Amino acid sequence: MSRWLITGAAGMLGRDLVAVLGAAPGISVTGLTREELDITDAAAVDAAVAGHDIVVNAAAWTDVDGAERDEAAATRINGEGVHQVARACARHGAALLQISTDYVFAGDADRPYREDFPTGPLGAYGRGKLAGELAVRQLLPERGFVVRTAWLYGEHGRNFVATMLELAARRDTLDVVDDQLGQPTWSRSLAVRLAALGEAALAGRAPAGTYHGTASGQVTWFGLARAVFELSGLDPERIRPTTSDRFPRPARRPAYSVLGHDGWASAGLPPMAPWSADLATALPSLRAALQIRDS
Asked: In this predicted structure, what is the pLDDT of residue 20?
């Protein structure tokens, strides 16, 4: 029986992780929400990690624009908080799967970012998440796993796909940026992959290091919005392309967020499914969660 601890268990990914692991045989899972565990509290983190074989740290400051306004607060969670989790894992002999982000890269590449490509975050959010990555590598060189994801959507919490479904009922047309390229990733698929990686890590089959937990393929936000409409039986021509400069935000968004997936082979795992296939599978549950009925 492997004993798992999930931090940030009330978030979009955290809830899927608890559900996926809870249904798996031979796994005991403890899920702690932000209210139940402050990952910046060293004593509380140490007590929570004790007795577990593996931790998935899904607790994070996820407000990208808010990080620009208060970088110290964001980094306290995404950097210093991760340091506390990694230190507790080192003390108790637990493995750690740390969720990170494409924002650690500059977003100016023209081919998928390899796991070992030099980082260069554009803003406060990426800098804080990179600090967390460095803490894992420093404190857990043999049992630390950094899993970068991007463009995450799911049944629980705010995300782009849910927003498109909600706006479809209120607006005749939607202007969506067509100059940012990435990999829409279903949170449940990522949860399934994290479970597989964790079990491989505990069995000694997966080397510590960095993995890219994103769907295969690539698309712009405009293309994703059209796919959401098409798969929902809506007219995709209602989606109109525009550029990022029409929607100025406090934090710069990477123009290119496509990640390479070579690392999975070292753990004996294939790349994740294509984004389009996962979106088709995920949409019924997302529509049900939003209580959207097909016309």
From this structure: 98
Pairing of strands 174-177, 239-242: parallel
- Known catalytic residue: 211? no
Average pLDDT, the chain: 96
How far is residue 92's CA from residue 256's CA, in Å, rounded to a whole number? 39
> Which member of 103, 113, 125, 211 is catalytic?
125
pLDDT in tens, 74-112: 999 999 999 999 999 999 999 999 999 999 999 999 999
- Our count of domains for the chain comes to 1
Specify if 243 maps to a domain: no
- Model pLDDT, residue 247: 86
CATH code of 100's domain: 3.40.50.720
Cβ atoms of 15 and 156 closer than 8 Å: yes
The answer to whether position 234 is within a domain reads: no
Q: At 135, list the tokens.
A: 């803490």
Q: How far is CA 174 from CA 59, 234, 245, 282, in A?
A: 32, 12, 16, 22
24 within a domain of the structure (yes/no): yes
Res 295: pLDDT: 41
State the pTM of this model: 0.96
Does the residue 135 lie in any domain? yes
pLDDT at residue 292 in the model: 67
- What is the extent of the structural domain holding 128? 2-218+249-289
